[in-house]
Every structure is written in C-alpha cells, then in structure tokens.
Amino acid sequence: MLSAYIYWNPSPEIFTIPLIDWPVRWYGFMWALGFILSHFVLSRVYKAEGKKLEDLDNLTLYIILGTIIGARLGHCLFYDAQYYLTHPLDILKIYEGGLASHGGAIGILTAIWLFTKKTKENIWWLLDRIVIVVPLAGMLIRIGNLMNSEIIGKPTTLPFAFIFASVDDLPRHPSQLYEAIYAGLLFVLMAYLWKNKRNNYAPGYLFGLFCVLLFSFRFGIEFLKENQEAFENALPINMGQILSIPFILIGIFLILKRKKVE
After folding, report:
1. Which residues pair with residue 25 across a beta bridge?
2. Burial class of 35 by CB neighbour count within 10 A (0 to 12, 13 to 18, 19+)
3. 136-146 pLDDT, tens per residue?
4. Regarding beta strands 13-17 and 162-164, do their DSSP bridges make them parallel or antiparallel, or are they unpaired?
5. Per-domain residue ranges for the chain?
6. Contact 225, 152 (CB under 8 A)
7. Under a CB-based contact definition with an 8 Å cutoff, are residues 39 and 134 in contact?
8. What is the pLDDT at residue 182?
C-alpha cells in the first residue's frame, strides 16, 4: 500500500567540509543560490533600464540583511513571542532553525524603504522590479524545505503524495513542492510582464499584482498544510493566513489605484 506513494527520506546535508567538519545543508545552499540568482536577474534588469550596477550591489546587501533579520524576527514574534520575549538572546540562534516568510517579506519592504530613503530611488519603480526575483528565491527556499522534510502537508490519498519518512509513515501533500512550482510560474509571469508590459501600468501596479497572486495562493495552500505551532489549532485560520490578508488587501488597493499610467 505504501509503495503507491513517493517515499521521501533525503539527507538534509549535501556534504561535509572535511578540514573544519562543517556540514553544507540543502536549505542554506538554496538560500544562498536564491540571492545569487536574484542578483544576476536584477543585474539584467538594471542594465536594460540604464541603472547603475553599483546601486544594485548596495541594494542586495540591504535585502540580504532585511530578509534574514525579518524572517527570524517574524518567526520569533509571530509564532512563539512568549518564549522569545523572555529569552531574547535565543533570537540570535538562527542555526537552530526558525524563519518566517511573512517576516522576510516585511524585512525586504523595510530594507527597500531604507534604501530608497538614502538613494532617492523611486520606491514603486524598485518594488515593481524586486517582485521579479522574490518568487525565484521563494521557489528555491521551498525546495530547501522539501529537502529538510519540513512544512509538511496534511494526509492525503492522492497518488503523488509524499511519505516523509523522518516525520511519520502517512502519505501527505507535498505542500513545499506545490509552493515551489507556483513560485516558479509566478517568476516567469512577473519577468514576462516586466519585459513586455511594464510601460502599460503606473509604478506600483506590478507590486500590487504580485501581492495578490502570491499571498492569495499562500492563504489557500495553508488549508493543505499542517499548522506550524500548536496554538494555531485553536484559531479559525492559521497564522500564515492571518498574515497574508494585509498583503492581499494592499495588493488589491494598488491594482485599482495604479492600473493606468498617470
């Protein structure tokens, strides 16, 4: 019976660096690859639009810091605030795991705001370009989650269900894979719209569209995922869905407000 499903039990480690006995893990590798590929894609965007690559290098540093700090604080405050507020030094223990995508999104937005305050770059122009690469990085991070057998889906009898051997022997939705595939398609869509339609809409429209498409999917996919923390079981919708709603509303507002070129 179990053979009808996909048995999933990969090692989360790719290899160990011999001299320092340091394991290189899929999750960390996918995070790093996400930043590298995002920088590469944005460099093509900057060249195409006559922007200075030095500005992109500075922006990349802002976004790396914003993503990591925001994702860590998001996990600590959104999912286990009581513990981390009484053990604040444990917030620094990123190596123990615990990063939240909504926190990362807030961190990115904060980093971009700080960057534009310093450089006087138009924030809406920049947000419309950042949304090209965010789903690319998100796709790779979800693949990292899949390799870690984490953020698992609820039990199902679908023939493509995964049995996460390190968790239990139940066939489950490979929710990480669903999100990775969707993010990949969203990357293709946003790249297409930037290349072919960016002059058809006012600045901020593509960012709004991205928010609606990404976070509406995130809201829906949560119904197929196990809750990350026990307290979510008592909520009508889980924390991921609650945090998605403001992004969806902001996206709808921007779509309606910035549909036409002013």
Report:
1. 13
2. middle
3. 999 999 999 99
4. unpaired
5. 21-257
6. yes
7. no
8. 98
User: For residue range 171-223, what is the model confidence (pLDDT) as tens digits?
Assistant: 999 999 999 999 999 999 999 999 999 989 999 999 999 999 999 999 999 99
CB 218 within 8 A of CB 244: yes
Cα dihedral 117→118→120→124 (10° resolution): -50
Q: Which of 38, 66, 62, 50 is nearest to 115 (CA)?
A: 62
3-state DSSP assignment of residue 7: strand
Instruction: Specify the pLDDT at position 2.
Output: 47
- Cβ atoms of 208 and 196 closer than 8 Å: no
pLDDT tens-digit map of 235-248: 899 999 999 999 99
Q: What per-residue confidence (pLDDT) applies to 184?
A: 98
Strand blocks (E) in the chain = 6-8, 13-17, 22-25, 162-164, 171-172
What are the structure tokens assigned to 144, written together?
Answer: 């990292």
Distance CA 128, CA 42 (A): 11
pLDDT digits (tens, 9 = 90+) for 72-131: 998 898 888 888 888 888 888 887 777 888 888 999 999 999 999 999 999 999 999 999
The pLDDT value given to residue 93: 82
111 close to 66: Cβ distance less than 8 angstroms: yes
- Record the pTM: 0.90
- Written as one letter, the residue type at 163 is I
Q: Which of 152, 138, 149, 167 is nearest to 225 (CA)?
A: 152
Q: Which of 124, 130, 135 lies closest to 257, judged by CA?
A: 124
CA angle 57, 195, 191 (to 5 degrees): 70
- Cα–Cα distance measured from residue 57 to residue 156, given in angstroms and rounded to the nearest whole number: 45
Rounded to 5°, angle at Cα 111 from 178 and 217: 20
Tell me the C-alpha distance between 183 and 109, whole Å.
19
